[in-house]
Specification:
This protein is of the alpha/beta class. About 25% of the residues lie in helices and about 30% in strands.
Length: about 170
Amino acid sequence: MCDKRALRAHFRAVRAAARSEDKDEAVFRALRASAYWAAERFFVYHAVGSETGTARIIRALLKAGKSVCLPRIEGGVMTAAPYGALARGVFGIPAPLQGEDTPCDVALVPLLAVDGTGVRLGCGGGYYDRYFAAHPSVVRVGLCYEAQRADELPREAHDILLQAVVTECGVTLF
């Protein structure tokens, strides 16, 4: 499959079929056991639909006294806004009402698919690629289910690779 539209449709269905609370719990445990958990400042997506769950991760990070930011899109630009009061944002995704772009150490990133080199297939808006291009020091960690792994995905010049992925089976470094 080379057509990104077809790949996205295929992996949306794969992700929806793979989703389970048990797998979300296993992803959480694998992340918590990883070296990434030692970071102090996290940029975490607010899971919607069949995305790998992040509510448990966000709660645990906040309870541990870590700084947590969520994506907020304004004027076509995604920023890492400090966790706080949420409102329906772009695409209906809950986002912080206020706050400036905040430096983070680790970004936990949603995806439709990932290959063995860290190429990430997202939803096609390019928000994360542009964010990472502007914030190159942020460690990029995808969250997904094992079923979302692909042998090879198409890569474009603007695509920024992930440095690791966490699934219900553990952490893979790229």
